[in-house]
Amino acid sequence: MEVDLMSVRQSSNTARARGLTHVRPAEVTLQDALAAVADPVRREILRELAAVPEWTKACGTFDLPVAKATRSHHFAVLRAAGLIEQRDEGPRRLNRLRRPEFDAAFPGLLDLVLSHPGR
């Protein structure tokens, strides 16, 4: 029996992408939004995303001082707070800052976070 590795990879990536939960910023509480942006590593992720076009920055390309598992946790927190959206393309997970949606829910908060100096 011959297995098509490409379709196995594609179905695996599709399954992984379907496992992502994205929350609309309008459904996030102020407390959860503030908790998400309180961490300096998460603020660095947001700054890096704000500096590039949408869907061009993969998770593994961020310059973060944390282990891979911790990095995954930070991305999950940002997703749960409605700050980022992620999608899988091949072996890479790409990210988008949900700035217009987040700004509508929390006017000025993201501007403040992005204007604050780095780590």
TrEMBL record:
<protein>
    <submittedName>
        <fullName>ArsR family transcriptional regulator</fullName>
    </submittedName>
</protein>
<dbReference type="InterPro" id="IPR036390">
    <property type="entry name" value="WH_DNA-bd_sf"/>
</dbReference>
<feature type="domain" description="HTH arsR-type">
    <location>
        <begin position="22"/>
        <end position="119"/>
    </location>
</feature>
<dbReference type="InterPro" id="IPR001845">
    <property type="entry name" value="HTH_ArsR_DNA-bd_dom"/>
</dbReference>
<dbReference type="InterPro" id="IPR011991">
    <property type="entry name" value="ArsR-like_HTH"/>
</dbReference>
<dbReference type="GO" id="GO:0003700">
    <property type="term" value="F:DNA-binding transcription factor activity"/>
</dbReference>
<dbReference type="InterPro" id="IPR036388">
    <property type="entry name" value="WH-like_DNA-bd_sf"/>
</dbReference>
